[in-house]
Structure formats: C-alpha cells, structure tokens
C-alpha cells in the first residue's frame, strides 16, 4: 500500500511538472509573437491595402531606379483616387529610408507628414514607432 501511494504521488508530481512546463512554453511563445507584432516584423507590405495591382510593377521599377524615381512615383500616386494609406504611407516610409543619408531634412519632413496623417489603429504604426527616434 505504501509503495502504491509513493507511485501515485510521484506520478502526480511528474504530470504536474509537465503541465507547468507546457504552460510556461505557451506563455513564452505568446510573448515572442506579441513582440513581433509590436515591432511590425510580420507585416508584408505587399498585403497592405491601398495600391492597385497594376501599379506594383511600376513601384518595383521605381525602387530599382532610385530615390528620385520613387519620389516621382509617390507624386503620381497621390493624384490617383485608388492609391491610399496604409500602402502609400509604407511606400513613403521606404522613400524616407532611401533619402536619409542624402537629404535628411526632406526625410524628416516626409516622415512627419506620414506620421501626422496615420491613424492610431493603422497596421504601419509599429514601423512608424520604430523610426521615430531617427526622424524627429
């Protein structure tokens, strides 16, 4: 009888320890996922709404051609009713990163404009928060 009791106690301790370990792993995984979301690491800019699919190749060509071409693309897109935030804002933030070393004043100006018009619930807020220290 004593042996059966010790086996039962040992089994309960082992199962309880395993359940505690599973819970700890789940909490740790959730924390890592929340940090990724907060940093915006899981945002795919191609999935953001606001840019018609017809303009995607033109955007890729503009990015390859350089900052001046991206600026022209942005100016062109601002005149189109189908192009809107959050995708337009993401493109402008890409432009800000491109021109930071050559024209920091323009980069800060564009960043401020994007930040000012971006609502608090926007999916690009994590990117704006991560860039704030450099452009304000």
If you had to describe this structure to a student in words, what would you say it looks like?
The protein has 136 residues and is mainly alpha-helical. The chain has two domains: 1-42; 45-135. It is 72% helix and 0% strand. It has helices at residues 2-39, 56-65, 67-78, 87-99, 104-117, 125-135. Helix 3 (67-78) runs antiparallel to helix 4 (87-99). It is elongated and about 85 Å long. The chain starts with a helix and ends with a helix.
Number of helices: 6
Major pleated sheet: none
**Care to count the β-strands?**
0
Number of domains: 2
Spans of 5+ residues with little confidence (pLDDT < 50)? none
Describe the structure using short key phrases:
136 residues, mainly alpha
Question: What's the arrangement of secondary structure elements?
Answer:
Elements: H1 2-39, H2 56-65, H3 67-78, H4 87-99, H5 104-117, H6 125-135
Helix pairs in contact: 2-3, 3-4, 4-5
Short description:
This protein has 136 residues and is mainly α. Helices cover 72% and strands 0% of the residues.
